[in-house]
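User: Hey, quick favor. My workstation is busy. Could you predict this chain's structure for me?
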Amino acid sequence: MISVSEATAIILSHSMETGKEDLAIQQACGRILREEVRADRNFPPFDRVAMDGVAICFDSFKNGNRNFPIEGIQAAGEQPKKLNNNDSCIEVMTGAMLPTGTDTVVRYEDLDIKDQSASLLLQKLNPRDHIHHQGQDAKQNETLLSPGTIISPAEVALLASVGKKTVSVSMFPKTAIISSGDELVPVDLTPLPYQIRRSNSYALQAALLELGCPADQFHIPDQPEILEAEVKKNSFALRSSNLLRRCFERQV
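Assistant: No problem, here it is.
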């Protein structure tokens, strides 16, 4: 019997290149990224309102103004409006561009709005409050994902945000599970008193399928010559048969 570390070393010494393929990003979960992904622009691409409320000019607050007439509403997805009077404000929605001429957002929770005027309920305010600043998350051309990354739904969202409709990933290898053991019988047979049903090979097959990698199953008697012949007959690489033979020989 060989140790886990010895078996791992044998397997890693026979690692192989599986090739790569392009997949739609919504089909790429669980796959290994094979390309570098960079930001195609700043993220966020503009000073983004982070809270519903009003946008003001901080200098007006600093000069003692606490009552700001509302000039209009800046919705998300609109071009930025311009504040015409520094002592006024513009209502803003989360995700909207910060209106031109404003530099601070005050939350609705900190306001009393009546008769198209917003009165501040707080006495302390910091400039640039509640703004998600341009480039705060990533700068244009910054590396966001590196080859070798396992793609999860979070990475899919990031790929979509930079305009990647398809992505290069590692192909799945052609996979087979070869079990051996003369005491093992198929799952649908009744074992004799000195036999047991095969189970580990089914567990491995299910685990691979859960990763998106289908696998065939083969059961071979405990004889190295038959093992090697069966592997070759089923069109697996010669070095794979050598790997299996080495593992088998170390085991016996």
